[in-house]
Design goal:
With 708 residues, the chain is mainly beta. The strands form twelve sheets. Strands 24-25-26-27-28-29-30-31-32 form a nine-stranded antiparallel sheet, with no helix packed on it. Strands 17, 18, 19, 20, 21, 22 and 23 form a seven-stranded antiparallel sheet that branches. The chain has a four-stranded antiparallel sheet with strand order 33-34-35-36, with no helix packed on it. A hairpin with a 2-residue loop joins strand 35 (648-652) and strand 36 (655-657).
């Protein structure tokens, strides 16, 4: 039955004529709405006076316990409602779900044949919690009904406000206890197929919006398109969108007092507020204790004193019918070092009212909101036990196992492309973007200094694995670069492997870069033909390689020139980017031999330890070696033939010694011979009393010294 508009809006007579021919006023009645109030409270009579209606409820029968059973209310509000009136669309088709059969033909067959255009209500789309064995629904609107206490809750950890697909017992629920008849769950799946076609919520197939806003929109192309097509964004389309929007508490009532297991409110909750309460719901206070959880647990920047969210937290376990008392199992401070039983807010030393995160000035409770909003939290679990295994782990009886899935993957992004042009496809794998909202009075300082964009932690062999093409970039950033490992070859003479840059004095536009790069030095294939460089480059950006014109500020070169296999060289910047021979002052060979470059300037004494000799190798074609000070500079010049023989000369100050020895002045360290016999021919020395000369092998002679 469907009431027409004319029937709903027909005028109502206010008087009637009695048998005596006199007119009398009707006592107009009104039915009740869903909240139990008259739909029409008052009306004007024919004289323009307001009169109240008489509330009326139609009773068609009584229940088994004698309580009245309402008749179906034939009002517009009940069209298409349960126990109401079946509604029709503009084509006279039923608008609500159908079940059962019509004229002996099942509704499902009628719809499939096109005789009825309406969705189907079958056992898999049922929300009856009392379904019997074998007919338990696949989709369930809340596993258990809303209850008011833990004692009458079959499972307080299940949300009565959730739509559950799968995971339901194959043998249904026990109608008396509300518990499952068995532990084997019926499988189920959710498939959403479609195509995003516009901005905001139309830009995604699935939107998970963490908010209380009834008109919540996701953040896809959040520009007002009504101002013209030019204001539309690039036209994003998203499969799944997760938005965590600032979600306030359902209610924030003031508190009269706390006990160890309850909170007493100053003003009772309204009937509407009570309907929002749930067993297992969070309840926070604005009472904090800085002595138990005073500051953030980690501060990598040093000196930061960011307060913890050290509120007393509880979980609702029930409430009083009058809305004055909310029960909790206990109160606790998350992350506090100890959790004494029986504690409650305001009782312990250090308890105070919060002014950092909230500033009410008096005790309140925040009902129904969490302390942290996470967009996604993935949990993977693996149970490697097998039939016969000892759960204590003392023995490992290996027998048959039932679970073969032992590889777990958290997030996997797979891109498969088919393209015919270069640069045709762009991929953004994972992007973390952090910025203050437009007009915010605070910049980066608003974030705690231990905040991070990505953190990797755990007891695992490989914390970060980068596996890409060798000719790509493993990591590239504004101050840090790691190459893909391709290396240098005959075609690419230089390959940059890594690069770390920073601005001197924390400012300026020229980076100082610590780089590692490889150069191809000879035609030899493999490590022997390549040199490895570690050095400073002044200018450019990480990943630029070694472009011309940049200042090389010294390098450590391994296998310099491709000829010092297993050796290392210390080179200056004048040789350019490749660490050429002309700039390398020290070369250490594979066997430890040290080779000095063009010039050695010693600012202190050079000491030959352990009695080692100093040998001058030939420096010219005549076999001469030279050690000298440039002309005009005081010093010592020594020139000598090779050890095979020849002349030698020693020049000191103004004296030259060739063959015989003559000089203006000598300076020696006074010392007496160690013994009277041990010496070599030609040695001489002096002490304060004698001049000693070794005239023959192991034969000293001396003369006494007199005053001058």
């Amino acid at each position: 039955m469907l009431l027409t508009d004319s029937a709903l809006c027909a005028p109502i007579p206010q008087t009637y004529r009695d048998t005596d021919g006199q007119y009398h006023a009707f006592a107009l009645a009104s039915t009740l709405d869903e909240s139990g109030n008259p739909r029409v409270r008052a009306y004007k009579d024919n004289n323009g006076q307001w009169r109240q209606t008489v509330p009326i409820v139609s009773v068609c029968s009584v229940e088994t316990n004698g309580t009245p059973h309402l008749c179906t209310d034939l009002s517009a509000e009940n069209v298409g409602k349960p126990n109401g009136i079946a509604g029709l669309d503009s084509k006279a088709n039923l608008t609500n779900n159908l079940a059962g059969s019509i004229n002996g033909t099942s509704v499902e067959n009628l719809v499939n044949a096109g005789n009825i255009i309406a969705p189907i209500k079958t056992s898999s789309l049922d929300v009856d919690l009392t379904a019997g064995q074998g007919s338990q629904p696949l989709i369930n609107a809340g596993r258990f009904p809303v209850v008011t206490g833990v004692a009458n809750s079959a499972d307080p950890f299940q949300s009565p406000d959730a739509l559950q697909i799968g995971g339901l017992p194959t043998k249904g629920w026990n109608t008396k206890t509300g518990l499952a008849n068995n532990e084997i769950a019926r499988p189920g799946s959710l498939v959403i197929a479609g195509q995003p076609w516009g901005p905001f919520n139309a830009g995604t197939l699935e939107s998970l919006l963490f908010t209380q806003n009834i008109d919540a929109q996701n953040g896809i192309c959040t520009l007002d398109w009504r101002q013209g097509a030019g204001h539309i964004c690039v036209g994003d389309g998203v499969g799944q969108y997760i938005g965590v929007i600032n979600a306030p508490a359902f209610m924030v009532p003031p508190v009269s007092k706390f006990t160890a297991t309850s909170v007493v409110l100053k003003t009772p909750l309204t009937a509407e507020q009570i309907t929002q309460l749930r067993i297992g719901m969070y309840i926070n206070t604005n009472i904090i204790n800085n002595t138990r959880a005073p500051y953030t647990h980690s501060d990598t920047w040093g000196g930061s004193q960011t307060p913890q969210s050290n509120f007393y937290l509880g979980v609702i376990s029930g409430w009083s019918a009058d809305g004055t008392t909310i029960n909790v199992s206990a109160w606790d401070i998350p992350q506090a070092s100890d959790h004494p039983s029986g504690q409650f807010p305001g009782q312990q030393t250090g308890d105070t009212i919060d002014t950092f995160f909230s500033n009410y000035g008096y005790p309140v409770v925040f009902i129904g909101n969490p302390n942290n909003g996470s967009a996604r939290n993935e949990y993977l679990a693996y149970d490697g036990s097998r039939a016969g295994d000892d759960p204590t782990g003392k023995t490992t009886a290996v027998t048959g196992g039932t679970a073969t899935a032992h590889a777990l993957t958290a997030d996997e992004i797979d891109l498969r492309y088919w393209a015919t042009r270069k640069n045709e496809v762009h991929l953004d794998g994972i992007t973390v973007s952090v910025a203050g909202s437009f007009g915010t009075p605070m910049g980066r300082e608003a974030l705690t200094q231990d905040s991070f964009a990505m953190a990797l932690s755990g007891d695992i062999h490989n914390l970060l694995k980068l596996d890409g093409p060798t000719d790509g970039n493993a990591i590239i950033g504004h101050s840090f670069y790691v190459g893909g490992g391709k290396g240098s070859d005959s075609a690419s003479k230089l390959y940059e492997m890594s690069d770390i840059g920073a601005f001197p004095d924390s400012q300026g536009s020229s980076l100082m870069r610590l780089t590692t790069f490889m150069t191809k030095e000879t035609d030899t294939v493999g490590p022997g033909g390549n040199a490895m460089h570690v050095g400073i480059i002044n200018g450019g950006s990480p990943g630029d390689g070694m472009p011309s014109g940049l200042a090389a500020w010294g390098q450590v070169v391994f296998n310099q020139g491709g000829t010092n296999n297993g050796g290392v060289s210390l080179c200056g910047g004048s040789g350019g980017n490749t660490g050429s021979d002309s700039s390398c002052g020290i070369q250490v060979d594979y066997n430890g031999t040290v080779r000095l470059g063009p010039q050695v300037n010693a600012q202190g004494p050079i000491t030959m330890m352990n009695g080692q000799r100093m040998t001058f190798a030939p420096a010219d074609k005549n076999g001469w070696s030279y050690w000298y000070a440039p002309s005009g500079v005081g010093g010592l010049t020594l020139s000598a033939k090779t050890y095979q023989g020849g002349d030698a000369s020693l020049t000191a100050y103004n004296g030259t010694f060739t063959g015989s020895v003559t000089a203006r002045r000598y300076q020696e360290t006074l010392s007496s011979p160690a013994s009277s016999s041990a010496c070599k021919v030609g040695e001489f020395t002096d002490d304060a009393d004698y001049h000693y000369v070794c005239v023959a092998e192991n034969t000293w002679k001396r003369v006494a010294l007199s005053s001058y």
